[in-house]
Amino acid sequence: MKIQEYVLKNDPQNQFNVLINTYQQVESAWNNKIDLGTLKDKKFNSIIVTGLGGSAISGDLMSNFLGSELTIPFIVNRNYHLPSFADKNTLLIVSSYSGNTEETISVFNEGIRKKCSIICITTGGKIGKTALENSIPTVNVTPGFQPRYSLGLSFFSLLKILQELSIIPSQDSIVTKITSLWKEKGIQLSNEPNKAIDIARKLIGFIPVIYSAADVTSAIGYRIKCQFNENSKLHAFHNVIPELNHNEIIGWESFQDKQFNAKLILILDKTYHPQIKKRFDITASLISSEIIYLESNEEDFKSRLMDLIYLGDWISYYLALFRGFDPTEIENINILKEKLS
What we know:
There is one protein chain. This protein has two domains: about 15-175, Glucose-6-phosphate isomerase like protein, domain 1 (Rossmann fold, 3-Layer(aba) Sandwich); about 195-320, Rossmann fold (3-Layer(aba) Sandwich). The N and C termini lie far apart (about 40 Å). The chain has 14 helices and nine strands. Helix 12 links the parallel strand 8 and strand 9. The protein is of the alpha/beta class. The chain has a five-stranded parallel beta sheet, with helices on both faces. Helix 4 (about 55-65) crosses helix 7, helix 4 (about 55-65) packs antiparallel against helix 10 (about 220-230) and helix 8 packs parallel to helix 13 (about 300-320). The relative contact order is 0.14.
């Protein structure tokens, strides 16, 4: 069966076209006029990005993307409350695509009480309303997407905020490069045959176990893991080297296909520390399972990072289609939210 037949059968909301046009989200976010008011003149001693799910992954990715360009503590908060150190010198970025995420609303209100410097990224909802009532700067992003399919909006809005506040140097050139990359890859990965389709087919009937490198490609591994969960309706697991070499690697000693039908995905990059590269090689040699390697050939690290993020989105999307699932539907999350309310 051709891919378009799978799309017609299992993708009623046409996330296929959303993926193809993800580069347009980058353009929208980067061209979005934002007014940060007096915050542009303020110095911060820490940055907290608070959010959940698709609205939080942009913060994880930012840590990998910017690396040493970030010279003050930068953390991602996934909870109902702020870390105790948060105060008036903290930049709190409230990220909620819907504007109605209950954990994020709780943190937002606490941030107001603690007099943090706050900026919101949202389409509206309760967070948009509260921000308006309190004259809090807000980056209004394009509505109409599933949060996990709006990474281009959330990530590049966050990146632009950091640039506008002079926390990082200009990112204009790399953003232009990534926009072109995603546009080009959108064409490649939506036509048969392609790498994402091949990998998705290899994963049919298996549980993906994804290994990446701490602080370098960790956000890619976690993002792909979550995309397998939400898009493909599939359990997937993620860990990072070197930490997993001190514990999880032992679990493979008793690995049996009949007990855990896993397939390992290793995320590689040429910037890895030499010992990290050795650890990947040795880990792979100790595992008696077929291994899928993901590595980008783009020239610069930031482009390679975004190349693999985009490839992972396509792999999980195709795997959903091949498994007979709607890549948009998130029934269990909706049931949970209903019961919580």
